[in-house]
Amino acid sequence: MATRLSVENKIAAIEDKGNNTALEVRDVLTELLNYTENQPFPPGQDVEFFHFWTDGNPVKDKLGNLLWYSIKGIKGQWINFTFRVEINISNPASTNNMFDNVFTFPIQNKDEKLLQYLKDIVVLNSPTVRFVIPYTISNGEQILDYPLSTSIYFSEKNMIVFDFNNIIYTKDFSELGIAKGYAFSSVSFHCPPFKLGKV
């Protein structure tokens, strides 16, 4: 089996003045390839990749809004969540003229194993991370993009939750409703060595 030392020795044997045959150069490259193929990636770790996605047909929430998703990553380390969410019907306003801008989408039946991969990477059942995504709407004459504050999280009930309310750590409603439109974006998650807490 090729080692780093054997590769270094073959490289050192290459003559600087250019009197190397194609056979000698090929021998060095082959030794280098054999060495790299024998090295685990990452060194000393078993890596398990996963990927769950909607096959053309989106999932729907109780109002008929649509979500396409692709979730891939490395078990116990990291996930990337790429999505297109399409809001066609907003949640109705409450009696205080406030809106519930939380949309809950089911995970496909074939993707039920997803939570086994997520539980060690993300905080479940809680909107602990808030960020901005681009949101596209049409006013009939123009297509407009604007930043929309959101928290995306996963529920133990096999749900993906989009929380567009502009308040975090409370169950309060928002004074603004969500216009008909869509967002296409991607976000990465990993589990930090510190705990997420309230401000």
Question: Which features characterize this protein?
Answer:
2 domains; alpha+beta; single chain; Adenovirus Type 5 Fiber Protein (Receptor Binding Domain); 199 residues; 15% helix; elongated; nine-stranded antiparallel sheet; 9 strands
Task: Give the helices and strands, then pairings.
Blueprint (H helix, E strand, L loop, with lengths): L3 H9 L9 H16 L11 E5 L5 E2 L5 E9 L3 E10 L14 E5 L7 H5 L12 E8 L4 E13 L3 E5 L17 E10 L9
Antiparallel strand pairs: 1-3, 2-3, 3-4, 4-9, 5-8, 6-7, 6-9, 7-8
| Structure classification | alpha+beta
Q: Give the biggest sheet.
A: 9 strands, antiparallel
Could you name the CATH topology of the largest domain?
Adenovirus Type 5 Fiber Protein (Receptor Binding Domain)
Number of strands: 9
Instruction: Give the helices and strands as they follow along the chain.
Output: HHEEEEEHEEEE
CATH class of the largest domain: Mainly Beta
What is the quaternary state of this protein? single chain
User: Can you tell me the number of structural domains?
Assistant: 2
Shape: elongated
Percent of residues in helices: 10-25%
Radius of gyration: 25 Å
Description of the structure:
This protein has 199 residues and is of the alpha+beta class. It has two domains: 4-37, no CATH class; 49-190, Adenovirus Type 5 Fiber Protein (Receptor Binding Domain) (Sandwich), CATH 2.60.90. It has three helices and nine strands, in the order H-H-E-E-E-E-E-H-E-E-E-E. It is elongated, with a radius of gyration of 25 Å. The termini are far apart.
